[in-house]
Amino acid sequence: MKHTTIKDVAKRLNVSISSVSRAFNDKYDIKKETKELILKTAEEMGYHPNPIAQKLSQKKTFNIGIVVPEFVNEYYSEIIIGIQEVFISHGYQVLIMQSDENADQELANVKTLINNMVDGLIIAPTMESNNMNFYLKQYQKGYPIVFMGRVEESLPASKVLFDNKKWSFFATEHLIRQQYKKIYHLSGYKNLSVSNDRIQGFLKAMDKHKIPKENYKVIEGGLMAKHGIAIVEDLIYKNDLPDAFFCFNDLMAFGVIKRLKSNGLRVPEDIAVMGFTETQMAELNTPQLSSVKQPTFEMGKKTAELLLKLIDKGPEQPETIILNGELNIRESTLNEKVTDNT
Amino acid sequence: MKHTTIKDVAKRLNVSISSVSRAFNDKYDIKKETKELILKTAEEMGYHPNPIAQKLSQKKTFNIGIVVPEFVNEYYSEIIIGIQEVFISHGYQVLIMQSDENADQELANVKTLINNMVDGLIIAPTMESNNMNFYLKQYQKGYPIVFMGRVEESLPASKVLFDNKKWSFFATEHLIRQQYKKIYHLSGYKNLSVSNDRIQGFLKAMDKHKIPKENYKVIEGGLMAKHGIAIVEDLIYKNDLPDAFFCFNDLMAFGVIKRLKSNGLRVPEDIAVMGFTETQMAELNTPQLSSVKQPTFEMGKKTAELLLKLIDKGPEQPETIILNGELNIRESTLNEKVTDNT
DNA sequence: AAAATCATCGGAAACGTTTCCGAAAACGGT
DNA sequence: ACCGTTTTCGGAAACGTTTCCGATGATTTT
Questions:
Q1: Which UniProt keywords apply (chains A, B) (predicted)?
Q2: How far is the CA of A15 from the C1' of D21 (A)?
């Protein structure tokens, strides 16, 4: 467990500590031969610079922190993988913490990460809370922070967003084109900006195609399958089922499909169901689920690159990157009566 | 960005640096009043000890590293959450790296983590490779390492395992009791010890119930849905379909179900399908998938606790924890002709 | 040949803690 | 009033780097 230090290497070669340091850091003021000699014997001695000492000396931790609501589902996992790819290749290590969809936990996580002196932070907030004030204050004090996902476009900081309104619109329009007449949107929690964006997209499509008000509805759901199940349950009880459901995410869609089937209803023959934020199960489910695929990996990479720039070059004009998705039509929203499937 | 240091606090109160340190570290040799005074003014000045400096001084990084094959699927995500819960509450930060089911990548990850001087390592190997020699050598040199999952019971180091053989046996026996006569096991890669354990369990059940050799088969699959699909495809082509499939994991089971359905076969009426390592989709799929639930969260916690002990108390007798699961019977393996569903 | 430049290196401060060692102060007992 | 403890504290070394500053000798310029 005894580590060989820079001193050991220096002593062995009868050179100074500074020379060894210079050799390892590619400095100009060292002769080529001595540098090579140093590197060679250091290699032989199994010397690796102690990262902690380097960090102390350089006043950088080469750690960055990520706070996400959760990473059990694929969405944030994939984003994290994208982030890691960028940072690890730049010599950083990534600390991941989850807020469990809880604003207090989120704030606590951010504070631990700051106390651990991470060089930068990526925050995917669970919801708009007054935490944002704290985060923004840190950002304005010069702490490098980049936001991701559930924040408003007006936020005065760099961020990477998905164009929820647009793709919600496209998804809804697809349902309309498939000639589903009565369409219900099961939204996410309404205190999430993404939920509202998708509601906006839904309503915009309704408006454009002049669907009468009694033929559509927005019902507040949540994030999980059980929310979809509960809502369908309720609608069955009220005898108020639509032709098509457009769900906030795939998980809710799976819940909806399950509950419909257990009531003897077929998807899509009786009722169509559309998801959002595509999961790998969309293809494997019966029926295969139509959904909107978000470019998770790319979102992670872009976010990481923004933060890296912020760390290296200091604060400049905040940048907002809005990414596009992909509407993947599958069995669950195909109306057999419609031949033109555009 | 200018941090207040221990010196600033000391100077302000005209005490020594050591006293401030003592106050923060709950040392005995400091008067209660001065300690409180120091803590109060430190608080006022917004002083937090610099963790990097602490780490350098204490020769500990308070970082631990985890290497997993992947964390897109729920299995490792949940394990990681269990690990984090233990370590974060003990003041550690957790560095997570994924090997992408690639042994070289895995080794590289372990080496980066060691170079980053993590205080301990949790390795969930992708497969038995000669990496194990390297890991064991580090372990024997005194580096705290705990293994998880895909390792053999004979490995001379602390580890947390799932009793794959036992639960594979139970799962298979359930299929036999449901009077499925011809049962095929789609295994995982045969260079994984877990695959072999589950094969053993499968064969043991066949043996116990004296199933004739021509009525069962072990087919090497993999880890993903597409492997299940490909195998079913092949069996259909060869006209060699069984009454029931027992799959290495849920993902393969979903692939199997999908491919069977697209051939007009019903699950479970025509063919039953059983998964393993239960996912949240098992309940939501149609039909609901029978599977074996692994105690992922607990596995994470146990692993973390083993490592924590290893770090704190040094190497003792290696400990092996083998955890039990839960056989969850659902629609996909219920034979309507059988009334006694035990 | 003197002066200026350049390449190469060593010494030491600095980064911000913890901790060892010893000293001063307070205290109790005789 | 003296001595031995105990309590409380300060000084300084140590952790392992990076980097600034200056020194030395070699090389080039005038």
A1: DNA-binding, Transcription, Transcription regulation
A2: 18
Yes or no, beta carbons of A1 and B142 under 8 Å apart: yes
What is the number of other CB atoms lying within 10 angstroms of the CB of residue B114? 15
In this structure, the number of other CB atoms found within 10 A of the CB of residue B12 comes to 16
Say whether A98 and B81 touch across the interface (CB within 8 A).
yes
CA distance B308 to B320: 15
Cα–Cα dist B244/B224, whole Å: 19
Residue A340: pLDDT band by 50, 70, 90 thresholds? low
Q: Across the strands, what pairs with A183?
A: A216, A244
CATH number of A60-160+296-321: 3.40.50.2300
Work out the pLDDT band at A339, boundaries 50, 70, 90.
low
Distance from CA(A9) to C1'(C9), angstroms, rounded:
16
Cβ distance B281 to A281 less than 8 Å, yes or no, reads: yes
Q: How far is CA B94 from CA A65, B78, B218, in A?
A: 11, 14, 39
Nucleotide nearest to B57 (CA to C1'): D15
Which residue on chain B is closest to A266 by alpha carbon?
B286
User: Quick one: average pLDDT of A39-45?
Assistant: 94
Task: List all nucleotides in chain D with at least one atom under 7 A from a protein Cβ.
Answer: 7-20, 22
Asked if A6-49 and A60-160+296-321 have one fold, the answer is no
Which residues in chain B have Cβ-Cβ distances shorter than 8 Å to A285?
Answer: 254, 281, 285-286
Of B1, B93, B225, the CB nearest to A95: B93
- Smallest CA–CA distance, residue A150 to chain B, in Å, is 21
> What is residue B286's DSSP assignment?
S
Retrieve residue A245's tokens: 């459901």
A3 touches strand D (CB under 7 A): yes
Q: Predicted confidence band at B130 (pLDDT cuts at 50, 70, 90)? A: confident
- Summary mean pLDDT of chain B: 94
Dihedral angle sign, alpha carbons of residues A12, A15, A21, A25: negative
**Which residue has the closest alpha carbon to D9 C1'?**
B19
Domain boundaries, chain B: 6-49, 61-162+296-323, 164-294+328-333
Both tokens of B186, joined, read 């789609």
- CATH topology classification for A6-49: 434 Repressor (Amino-terminal Domain) (1.10.260)
The nucleotide whose C1' lies nearest the CA of B29 is D8
How many Å does it take to go from CA B50 to C1' C27? Answer: 38
Q: What is the pLDDT of residues A72-130, one digit of tens each?
A: 999 999 999 999 999 999 999 999 999 999 999 999 999 999 999 999 999 999 987 88
The CATH architecture one would assign to domain B164-294+328-333 is: 3-Layer(aba) Sandwich (3.40)
Residue pLDDT, tens place only, B254-291:
999 999 999 999 999 999 999 999 999 999 999 999 99
Beta-carbon separation of A115 and B284 below 8 A:
no
User: Class of B61-162+296-323 per CATH?
Assistant: alpha beta
**pLDDT digits 0-9 by tens, B2-41:** 689 999 999 999 999 999 999 999 888 888 889 999 999 9
Q: List the A24 CA – C11 C1' distance (angstroms).
A: 19
Closest CA to A328 of A287, A278, A285: A278
pLDDT tens for each residue of B144-157 = 999 999 998 999 99
